[in-house]
Design brief:
Elements: E1 2-11, E2 14-24, E3 29-33, H1 40-47, E4 60-65, E5 68-69, H2 75-79, E6 82-85, H3 100-110, H4 115-128, H5 144-156, E7 162-166, H6 174-185, E8 192-197, H7 200-206, E9 209-214, E10 217-222, H8 224-228, H9 231-237, H10 241-248, H11 268-272
The protein binds adenosine-5'-triphosphate.
GO molecular function, one term: ATP binding
Protein name: Energy-coupling factor transporter ATP-binding protein EcfA2
Family: Belongs to the ABC transporter superfamily.
């Protein structure tokens, strides 16, 4: 579906992406984890086509959607293919809508869709993101968590094949995180989701495939265990809360200088699984 090959990118003299290659399939749920400054937001913007080789001549490598580079697609083709939701929802609001419902309809209206399609998409997104009760509110009067759900709803109303989330929970309180996470878990199966985050718990909650970005390079890729227990992940991101809880209670205490993470549960699902499955 989307393929990045050997992407190199610098801001001035500072290398930010250093030979990143990545392939995503339809409907995949992928987490790309990395510490602050590892290049997550920059990679998210390349993935979404916000940055392209045309605007950044110094960049090397390619980003292809279904075999064609992003710059070959029109703005409206790209908008109905991929949506990027960042950490500050207010930055994504159009500023042209008086109500939540109008904000969600804004994108489909710009695509020139028939009115009945716009209304259908708007109402579906309001329902999916649990915003029906806020439909007539001014978007700028919403709480941060409500605004984040609105921005996700507005993105979904464009029916993207790929939804990119750049630390979508970073400014939310615990209750808003729970509500936003449950909206994300219930997204249609055919929408691919790429979550960029620093938090192993968030990734475990939403993803099936994991990658670790460090200093602009993918240094680990695969299952939750192979990535979240990679030494670089442990050093940069720490352990998931379930793993930390086990470790603090004596799990895997070094014996003869050796410290093992074999069998260490990462999530509540691991705790409920037979031990053999997580070794
Ligand atoms: N517009 C810019 N001009 C110069 N340097 C930039 C610019 N944007 C980002 N950078 C630098 O590029 C590097 C990667 O930034 P990026 O925002 O992609 O990382 P990140 O992993 O998303 O970080 P965080 O988790 O802190 O949001 C950082 O060193 C950052 O300072």
């Amino acid at each position: 579906m989307i393929e990045i090959s050997e992407l190199h990118f610098t801001y001035g003299a500072t290398p930010v992406l250093d030979g990143v290659s990545l392939r995503l399939r339809e409907g995949e749920r992928v987490a790309i984890l990395g510490g602050n400054g590892s290049g997550k937001s920059t990679l998210a913007e390349w993935l979404a086509g916000w940055k392209t080789g045309r605007d950044h001549a110094a960049a090397k490598g390619t980003v292809h959607w279904h075999g064609r580079p992003w710059q070959d697609y029109s703005v409206s083709e790209r908008a109905s293919t991929v949506q990027l939701v960042g950490q500050r929802p207010a930055q994504h609001l159009s500023g042209r809508a008086f109500t939540v419902a109008e904000e969600i309809a804004f994108g489909p209206e710009n695509l020139g869709l028939p009115v009945e399609d716009i209304v259908w998409r708007r109402d579906k997104a309001l329902h999916t993101c649990r915003l029906n009760h806020l439909a007539e509110r001014d978007p700028f009067t919403l709480s941060g968590g409500e605004q984040q759900r609105l921005v996700i709803a507005a993105a979904l109303a464009l029916q993207p094949r790929l939804l990119i989330l750049d630390e979508p929970f970073s400014n939310l309180d615990p209750e808003s995180r729970v509500q936003t996470a449950s909206v994300l878990r219930e997204l249609p199966d055919d929408v691919a989701v790429v979550l960029f985050d620093t938090n192993p718990d968030t990734a475990l909650d939403l993803a099936d495939r994991f990658l670790l970005l460090h200093d602009g390079k993918i240094v680990a890729e695969g299952s939750a265990r192979s990535v979240l227990l990679h030494p670089q992940a442990i050093e940069t991101l720490g352990f998931s809360s379930v793993a930390r809880c086990f470790i603090e209670n004596g799990f895997g205490a070094p014996v003869g200088g050796q410290w093992s993470t074999a069998g260490l549960p990462l999530s509540l699902a691991d705790v409920r699984s037979p031990r053999a499955e997580i070794c």
